[in-house]
Amino acid sequence: MRDIEERIKKLLVEMTAEEKIGQLIQCGPSLVGAFEVSFEELLDMMFDGRISQEEFGKLMSTATQDFHEDDIRAGKIGSFNGIKNAETANRLQKIAVEESRLGIPLLFGYDVIHGYRTIFPIPLAESCAWDPVLWEKTARIAAIEATAAGVHMTFAPMVDVAKDARWGRVSEGAGEDAYLTSVFGTAKVKGFQDDDLSREDSMAACIKHFAGYGAAEAGRDYNRVDMSMQRLFEEYMPPFEACVKAGARAVMPAFNDINGIPCSVSRWLLTDILRNRLGFDGMTVSDSNAIAECVDHGIAKDRSEAAKLAIEAGMDMDMSSNVYAENLPALLERGVISEADLDRAVTDIMRIKFELGLFDHPYQTSCEREKETLLRPEYRACAREAAAKSMVLLKNEGVLPLKKEIRIGIAGELADQRAEMTGAWAIGANGDDCVSIIDACNASNINYVYTPGIENGVVNKKEIERLSKNCDVWIAAVGEKKDQSGEAASRADIGLPKEQEDLLEALLQTGIPVAAVLFNGRPLAIPWAAKHVPAILEAWHPGVEAGNAVLDILFGDVNPSAKLTTTFPYTTGQCPMYYAHINTGRPGGKGKFTSKYLDTPLSPVFPFGYGLSYTSFEYSNLSIRQEEDMLHILVDVKNTGKAAGEEIVQCYTGQKTGRRVRPVKQLRSFEKIALDPGETKKVSFDIDVKNLGYYDWNMNYTVDRGAMEIFVGTSSVEGLKADIVLK
Ligand code: GLC
To answer: Distance between CA atoms of 101 and 168, rounded to whole angstroms?
Structure first.
């Protein structure tokens, strides 16, 4: 794009230092009102109980939003986070383009994580569809809606591999596997950006959080990340590499440190690795307030030093900390930072603004387009399809699918709480857009009775007994509310609350079959439910079409096909628990002196890649041959049941020995196939041996030619295996 580079150079020459610094500033609308403290302080006061939610609401009712128009006019702001309607976007853009000295357009960023107004299942849910076409399709719809509302960049996809279910942000990614997360992230980047970023319904993808955020120690959000370079580059970096290859135009460094250097000020990470090794030429934007927090990290003595370290590391844009605005002028004046560092950051940002077409057509939407675009019926239909394809059937002992004329009892408040269905990071959403299970039953004239089942933490057994006389099956809606996962939502106990287990027990005691529907944003430790409840559907937080999708599965209108992308541990104490573990010298087993816990079984409750169907599948005829550097793997899969269904065929490899110990198995490829009853399909995987490498002690990428186990199956633990010695 030589033309763009030329245009940037010409602009740079005209810009003052203040205007250059202005381009590095991303802010949000400030809330000002009849309160003496800042909005952030007010939020903290509410969260820590110094003021009640009612008092907070009352104060907010006096609030107005300050969009910093004068600063835009003065060229002191380059970007906004949190503009969520066409009218405001165009109004602010007009000030920037027509009233500032150089008319440089604003860049509007927003967290469009799993839909904008049409909220799709949370990413962890959607990842369980193992369906790149679907992943790209929902991202495309999100881009069409968000750009109609004025958004130019989304702070997504989040491609942090997460192996510890205590970490609340596991809900925002694609689970524990680097390969699957790479495929997921690639599909999302393509969906958001499409093939022409300058198109008005394309938005730049800002992949995050670079890097290793999912490995926060003890699953505690924002905690330290300390790991070997081998592990970082084998297990956490691949999705970022894949997304950069897919053309992602922005990167958000993570809050955490890596081995003692916060990502926000790590030149090794942001320049040596991101730009020089991965070849990234887009822009970097800090996480919210992250540059300022380098003082708290203890790597910068003050905000001025934080600003210096960040700009020198390769952090282009400062999201909301104001550290750049406050300190870069003086640092430049004193020659502490170079004009070259400043110009590099400005150039990266300008490149994206030009690529988005903001200079050529800065007003990319209109109120009319916004009004006619949001929440279209066809988008809802896609949300319903995505939700049903994301729901994992964990257990079914003859309860599901339900017959249409059956009388249903529904218990659990989550069955009647629309807003909880959006899950974390649905900030553009309107909870009332969601369809709850109760809404779906009413719309389908289903014969049901309902009770929240729990009042003040106690199960209302009388009510359950009374209602049981009028139902043939109980549907129990249990799990987590949406704010129990996502950012700043780590949990030290990922079990079901006691009152929810009491509710399940009370329902089981009626003697009527029970199907539990889990609404949650992370793997839960549910050994008791898994043992006693005859049917369990993992619905996650399914988005706007939650209730309809749940009924589609429960009544068999959709045959469940989803598979887990995270391991469900037996207890919180097993976290982090994941399938691609190493063997150790004493693999867990019956012997006392083997790697295990005294008080829990070895295996998880539900393993990675697991999910049931209303039909059954049989694998046979696994064959492998190597031609040069390509492994050709074939397997037959037959539908041995009575219903048509889809099966996600998974292909893993396991290297027996290496120069460093290797995981017992690693997912290398997968394919979802549809089979009618009795039908057999041959599935083939072609795997390049060069991709089976790893890093040796000296960080040399190594491909061994030795014994390799090939495992093809319906989950990471069930399937066929064969050995081969790689040539
Ligand atoms: C948050 C999150 C990040 C998000 C950003 C902007 O703190 O860490 O994922 O994109 O702020 O809202």
So the answer is: 45
